[in-house]
Amino acid sequence: MSSKLSYSEALESVYVGHLKHDKGYVEISTSLFVEKIDVDMPTLPPIGFYSFKGEKIELLKPPDQPYSPLILSLHETVWVKEGDLDSLRKFAESVILKPTTSNTLPPQKRMDILRRSAMSVVEDLFESPTQEKIEKSVNVVRSFVYVMMKDPKAYLLLIKLSSHDPYTLQHSVGTAVNAIILARKLGITQDKELLDVGLAGLLHDIGKVRIRKEIINKPGPLTESEWQEMRQHSLEGFEIVKDNPQISARTKRAILEHHEDNIGTGYPSGLKADQIDIFSKIVSICDIFNALTTDRTYAKGRSAFEAFQFMRDKLMHKVDDHIFTQLVMIYGGHVEELNQ
Ligand SMILES: [Fe+2]
Ligand SMILES: [Fe+2]
What we know:
The protein has helices at 7-16, 31-34, 69-74, 85-97, 107-127, 131-150, 154-160, 167-185, 191-203, 213-216, 224-230, 233-241, 249-257, 278-293, 304-314, 321-330; strands at residues 21-22, 25-29, 49-53, 56-61, 77-81.
């Protein structure tokens, strides 16, 4: 590591797992351990610290000894055993998720870490969706659900987050967050179900990894045959997740159905409204809404209000009336105002 990480950067790196591995050890920034600790903070797990002397590994602190401020101040990073990484990740997660009385991590910072973690998890995922990376995204969505269940106002922070990150990443995370918020508004309150719908939001476009890059990144409009290829992404996404035991059947179904519409003109199956699962409908409307409101290289995103007007005028065959009304209300509006 080149320069010393801040406390929240250190938390984030452990939480997301962007760490250097070598010979069964992992490098951890000591910033993770030195922050002032109050009574509400989760306890640090008892682990050993090591350092590399050339090729040789040396013990700095045995697992059962307390964290010595001296050791920590002398080293920017220490190495820990790979086997201890899981307990450190759990520690980082509980700091990120559990508000404490201290101000070590103010709510906005907490949300930033969660959002950035989600972004980087999705970025990895879009490189190649392996089992391990999918597991990480389950964790991140679980964290979103947890934060929103514990703190009803948290979603206000989340929906305010704007970003200039690459489109698909921002789009996936934005769709996941909105899908969880919308599902709650629709009366879905079970953690497990919120996790399923959030994960569907995060993974809905994962099939794009199997579509040729020239088509994904083409600046101009697509030709008919290019569109045909692009439309394969929901089926391809389903193929990627279909045998994954970590992912529920409804999540898989929502990935498959997110481009179906009410009148049977969607793809891949041309289903009608009553054949489409509500999770798929939630992901679909959040997908559309997020696409309309996100900045692109060639155009600025619409405001939420403009996006709702556009949906009302042009896209009502694609969205469910009741779900649409609830989404408008989340953003503080009323459907009647849209026609003025
Ligand atoms: Fe899609
Ligand atoms: Fe999408």
